[in-house]
Structures are given as C-alpha cells and as structure tokens.
UniProtKB/TrEMBL annotation, chain A:
One GO location term (cellular component): nucleoplasm
UniProt-recorded name of the protein: Multifunctional methyltransferase subunit TRM112-like protein
CDD domains named in the record: Trm112-like (cd21089)
Organism of provenance: Nezara viridula (Southern green stink bug)
Family indicated by similarity: Belongs to the TRM112 family.
Biological process annotations from GO: rRNA (guanine-N7)-methylation; tRNA methylation
From TrEMBL, chain B:
Sequence ranges assigned to domain 18S rRNA (guanine(1575)-N(7))-methyltransferase Bud23 C-terminal in this UniProt record: 207-273
Lineage start: Eukaryota, Metazoa, Ecdysozoa, Arthropoda, Hexapoda
Functional note: S-adenosyl-L-methionine-dependent methyltransferase that specifically methylates the N(7) position of a guanine in 18S rRNA. Requires the methyltransferase adapter protein TRM112 for full rRNA methyltransferase activity. Involved in the pre-rRNA processing steps leading to small-subunit rRNA production independently of its RNA-modifying catalytic activity. Important for biogenesis end export of the 40S ribosomal subunit independent on its methyltransferase activity. Locus-specific steroid receptor coactivator.
UniProt record similarity statement: Belongs to the class I-like SAM-binding methyltransferase superfamily. BUD23/WBSCR22 family.
Known partners and oligomeric status: Heterodimer with TRMT112; this heterodimerization is necessary for the metabolic stability and activity of the catalytic subunit BUD23. Interacts with GRIP1.
Major location (coarse): cytoplasm
Source organism of the structure: Nezara viridula
Name of the protein: 18S rRNA (guanine-N(7))-methyltransferase
Pfam families (alphabetical): Methyltransf_11 (PF08241), WBS_methylT (PF12589)
SUPFAM superfamilies in UniProt: S-adenosyl-L-methionine-dependent methyltransferases
Single GO molecular function: rRNA (guanine) methyltransferase activity
Length: 124, 277
C-alpha cells in the first residue's frame, strides 16, 4: 500500500463511525521501489492531499527525514519538493502491517501490500 | 447469455474468483482482449481533459487488466476488489496502481472529493445479487453509489460496463444511482448485435451534460439495406399471369383434377421454344 492510498483511506464504512480519518498505521515490513516521476501529477495531487496526515505517516515509517513539515509556497516550481513528495507518496510502500480506525480502534490488516478493508456484516 | 452460465448465479464473487478462475485472466488472450477493449471505451466515455494525468478509481479491478489500460494512458489508479486471488494475480503482473481488498456493497472506504473519475468493468451485476441472508441488493447498491458520489470530485464521471440480467436489474441500478445524487443514464453500444452489445452506465456528479452517443447505432433508420433479390409479387392478383410458368402449372393441375390426360411435369415444362419454329 502506497502512502497516497493511506492518505485517502478512511474507516467510515463501519457503522457509527463519522469520519474515520486518518487511519493509524503500524508497519512491520516496508518496501521502497522506483516509480517514474511525473511532476504534473504530483503538482495536481498536492492541493488535494491532507499534508499533515502524509507527514505523520511518513514520520511513523521513518521516511520523513527530508520532507518539510508543511507544504512550501510555490511548490509548482519547486522541483526538489515535488521529488520528495513523490518519493513519500508513491515509492514508499507498506507490505505488512495494520491500519487502525481512530474511533473504534478496529484493525485492518495489510498483507502482501494489500490492505484488507472488509468488515463483518454486524459492523455495517 | 443463458441464466445457467452467469457466474454470479454460481457463487459469491470472493468464492467464484479463486486461483483457477483468476489464472484465466492472465492466460486467456480472448478474455484479455475483451477487457482491454471495454476499458478503452470506458475511458473514452469518461472524457477526461486531454494530456492530464488523473487519479482514477477502478471498481472491481480484479487482476488489473483494466488498470493496465489506465496506466498506458498516463493515469494513476487505485483498485478495489473483493477477491484476494484476483488481487494476487494483479500483484504478479506488477501493476502500478494500488490495490485494496474491499466489498463494494459495504461502501467506498475513501474520503471525499479525491478521485477524478471511476471505471468499473463487468462488476456491477455482482451487486444485484444477495449472496448472504443479510444482503439487501437495493440497500447495498445505495450505500455503494452514495459513498462513491462523495469520493469523486465535482467534475468527475463514473463509467460502469456491466451485464444486466434483465430490465429489472437496469431499473434497480439506475434508481439507486439517481437516489444517491448522480445524473446520467445508460449507453448501449451495438444494440442490434447479440455479441457486441455492451451496456455502459454513465454517471455524472455535477449537472447533467448530454449523454455520449452509443456506438453502432448510426445506420438504423436512415438507409435501407441493399439486397440482390428482385421483389416478386407472386399471386398478387389471385391468378397468375397468362402463359407464365405458374399459369401453365395451375392449368395442368386443374386438368388432372378433371381426370383428363395430362403429361407429367418435366424440366421442359413451360419453357419457351427456340426461335426455329
């Protein structure tokens, strides 16, 4: 699971959960792979991101060392910043671990890089 | 398709798409070709702004065949599917998109306004079935559509290619989609063909633009099909034309009924004589 997906995932499918965001993250296995850099895509996605969540998740996984804490001004032209966001967003992947609902504490296991968001019928 | 052959009647999707079934989607070139064609058409119907990389949602992504088409067009995608075996095939194929195991009928687990569009190839008909005692298709469809509606951006569209079993299913799906707030409707490509006929549900988030035109419907009313055969007006007036073959045959028949001596019909009957006589 890429951190882009984590930035969007919520547990609001569970009955009684209002927002279910951001999901806590516990990683046991992390993989860093190479993905082609597409500056246009990163530029377009940054305004939509919840940057605080992204930074928090990157910090938890130990990949936030050179990532600024907030979105820099004029990020469109800041190639260096875009590269860093690209790296955290698309190249860092959680292979094994858990996602945790902030409201109920329910765990969603991540196996082989696929988060399991299935819930039981009594939770719907 | 006869009802016995519909996969959604055989088992729930997480059971039906096991390792053997999933493997077909990497090996059967015909299946792959059809999936790719339908995804290309769905992408065309999405009508995204050109040359802009978008973030798309693939609902029921399976082994990621449709996702590969999205990648080839320069888009980033996230796929949802209920079958773990299919998602494992997608991992083997090393697709670029991210995969999430989830049941569409339980809703879309994403926060609001993130995606620029959604495609779904041959998945929606699965939601019309109740696989468990607690499942209510209309309720599940409504939850699915309403959560999809919130997770899409304001200009987005969602395109569903699906195989409705009967008109009631189309009615069920479109009612729930409209109830959830979507505009749009059904586009049927090649409506006069049994095999090439494809149903696309085109849903739009913001106010309804005109529905895209379906393929293969052009030549219906404007032209008349060419035929080599001449129009014949046999027995138009009750009696055949005098001295014609039909007239002679009828006359011979009448004489036979009267008990008169009549020669049998042969290949020379009613032939014209050659010019020598």
């Amino acid at each position: 699971m890429k951190l882009l997906t984590h930035n969007m995932l919520s547990s609001k499918c569970i009955k009684g959960v209002n927002l279910g965001y951001p999901l806590g993250i516990e990683a046991r296995d992390i993989k860093v792979s190479k993905v082609d850099f597409n500056s246009e895509f990163v530029t377009r996605i940054i305004p939509k991101l919840d940057y605080k969540t992204l930074y928090g998740a990157a910090e938890k996984l130990g990949h936030a060392t050179d990532l600024p804490q907030t979105v820099v001004e004029n990020f469109e032209s800041n190639e260096d910043f875009l590269q860093k966001v690209h790296h955290v967003l698309l190249e860092v992947e959680v292979i094994d671990g858990d996602l945790i609902c902030p409201e109920t504490g329910r765990k969603f296991p991540i196996n082989a890089g696929i988060p399991n968001m299935l819930i039981n019928e009594d939770e719907v | 398709m006869s009802s016995g052959r519909r996969p959604e009647h055989q088992a729930p999707p997480d059971i039906y798409y096991n390792e053997t079934e999933a493997k077909k989607y990497t090996q059967n070139s015909r299946m792959i070709e059809i999936q790719v064609q339908m995804t290309e058409r769905a992408l065309e119907l999405l009508s995204l702004p050109e040359d802009e990389p978008a973030l798309l949602l693939d609902l029921g992504c399976g082994s990621g065949l449709s996702g590969s088409v999205l990648e080839d067009n320069g888009h980033m995608w996230v796929g949802l599917d209920i079958s773990r075996a299919m998602l494992e095939v997608a991992l083997e194929r090393e697709v670029e998109g991210d995969l999430v195991l989830s049941d569409l009928g339980q809703g879309i687990p994403f926060r609001a306004g993130m995606f620029d569009g959604a495609v779904s190839i041959s998945a929606l008909q699965w939601l019309c079935n109740a696989d468990q005692a607690t499942h209510k298709p209309a309720k599940r469809l409504y939850k699915f559509f309403s959560m999809l509606y919130t997770s899409l951006s304001r200009t987005a569209r969602a395109i569903f290619q699906f195989y409705p079993e009967n008109p009631d299913q189309i009615e069920l799906v479109t009612t729930q989609a409209t109830k959830a707030g979507f505009f749009g409707g059904l586009v049927v490509d090649y409506p006069n063909s049994t095999k090439a006929k494809k149903y696309f549900l085109v849903l739009m988030v913001s106010s309804s633009a005109a529905l895209p035109k379906a393929l293969g419907t052009e030549s219906d009313n404007t032209t008349i099909a060419f035929s080599k055969d001449r129009a014949k007006f046999k027995k138009f007036h009750g009696k055949p034309l005098k001295k014609s073959k039909d007239w002679i045959l009828e006359k011979k028949e009448r004489r036979r009924r009267q008990g008169l001596a009549t020669r049998e019909e042969s290949k020379y009957t009613a032939r014209r004589r050659c010019g020598k006589f």
